[in-house]
Design brief:
The structure is a homotetramer of 178-residue chains.
Chain A: E1 16-21, H1 27-42, E2 46-49, H2 55-65, E3 70-73, E4 88-90, H3 98-104, E5 108-112, H4 116-128, E6 132-135, H5 140-144, E7 158-161, H6 164-176
Parallel strand pairs in A: 1-2, 1-5, 2-3, 3-4, 5-6, 6-7
């Protein structure tokens, strides 16, 4: 039996940070996604992704290289659909509705490039007040979005960055304020 | 940058095992759930739960005491709703529809006691062919179910046990056959 | 433009009644499902089903023959997957998670026969307090369930009947009490 | 019993057309939404909405005034949350994940104004190839979107209009081509 009190095992939940972007992407986008994944693991945070290829896989690869926990929240219900770097896989079978879950499972969301699926996740992050850290320079909606509120009904944190260093400086500062 | 090939970080996904049961339960039920959680962590498997209290929390407490990864797939979208032993929390905001996800995220499902919510998860495990390891002796649907197929449309693995030792002997044997 | 007040168009929502059961069933089961569908339309209620074949299609056929509104809440996102009697089709692509929606879209739930999927819907009806009207004599979980609460955490209305007439007498009485 | 063949009741499913936009909106936006709802009912199509207030309610009011079928696919599981013009209500309790369902339940999607929620639905329409008919002039994302593909992975039909007449001319032409 386990000792009363649980003082050893009970600990504050780690931060969970999502990386969202295209399921297929060019080499330079994958490289930056991998670096972002590494940085998340170095922070001691859990990486949340959609579990499939492209930016998701590259971010997981980066986090895995630093021994991080990589979570893949799949569209399908087949655990084998996850990329090979995920060490926790969530099967859903709810297809694109899982985009809500990626966002809700995160304390902060980093975007790199991104098409319509990524844009839907940006919308859900906005709606649910999950802070958005948007990396410019890699195309897609991360570049197309103007630095303006997504709507007037809410005020959610949304920040734009030109480099990974800048982004992580702001991210760590933001999250340390809790 | 990370070395080509990823040979260090790429590794077979760990087994993921769900423990399902009541969100509120009596002391003897919680005690057995905690033991089951410990055993799952000792196997090196990831524990999947619904992330809330009762059997879910007790199983997480057991797994956490052995340094295991404890995943809580919440009904809500508030990460702070998870019990304090979860080290990966999935926010969903899809309420009871998340019962499908608990099952789909698991290679095997262990049931202890259980009311209507647990029974719905047993149904989904049956439908999706996730093997069910049902522990007798702690009331609820784990005791009420007869040792008969849930329906004639499918043949899914469903096993009944009178003790934790028996259950884990069968579970490890089953999972090793892949 | 439309006149102020909307007094013509604003009217109390019709009752919505679900019929749940197997996607494949024998002739006698389909016949009773068709009769149940007809009776629902004769009450002026909207029929809610899972939109696919078997009991769902037979119930829709019955309701359509009386000019009723038949809603099919599909597992898939392809509207063409609905049976040909549905005149409102809800595409979901959330697969079995839609079982929650069938129940939540209904003021009352009638069960005929049924396997694991139907049993999961019975669980959700119980959890959400949607009254269950269970028709005996056609096999499956409608016959296997004992006349006992599904769990002790809630008290939800659940009634068992040996004939359609009996069932509809109780249903209309129950619903008229609002 | 019903006659063999079902020739009377079996009929082609009606077209289903969604109207999406803000849950709160100014008078001129509501007025146009109501007109759009009326036009949908005059086409003999089923109106699909999110079932709540603002643009959704105004469109339902318009359709109801022409005797149309108005479907509200709610975020919640409480049927009484629907606006008073819905005559079919789908309870979901999956919150914003239901945005996928609004789109998947439609043969075509009309947008008026719209914030982050509407933009997520536009994304899902794009992803699933549901044709988008976007009415300009009423603010929000319907005005902010440029006439460019949402991403390069797909080619989905997306059209922009300056007036209701123009929009419905194109919509009827598009849908008649099947």
């Amino acid at each position: 039996m386990i000792a009363e009190g649980g003082s050893v095992t009970e600990q504050p939940r780690k931060l969970q940070i999502a990386v969202i972007g295209d399921g297929e992407a060019e080499e330079n986008v994958l490289r930056v996604a991998e670096q972002v994944g590494s940085r998340i693991a170095e922070l001691g945070a859990v990486l949340i992704t959609g579990g499939h290829g492209g930016v998701m896989e590259a971010a997981c690869r980066g986090a895995a290289s630093r021994g991080g926990i990589c979570v893949g929240i799949l569209r399908s219900g087949r655990l084998s659909d996850a990329n090979r770097y995920c060490n926790v896989v969530i099967g859903t079978e709810i297809e694109h509705a899982r985009n809500v879950l990626t966002v809700l499972s995160s304390d902060a969301v980093i975007t790199i490039g991104g098409g319509a699926g990524t844009l839907s996740e940006i919308c859900f992050a906005w709606i649910h007040g999950r802070p958005l850290f948007i990396l410019r320079g890699f195309g897609g909606w991360s570049d197309r979005l103007e630095n303006e509120p997504l709507d007037r009904r809410r005020t959610s944190p949304m920040f734009f960055f030109e480099s990974i260093d800048e982004l992580f400086a702001a991210l760590t500062s933001f999250l340390s304020k809790g």
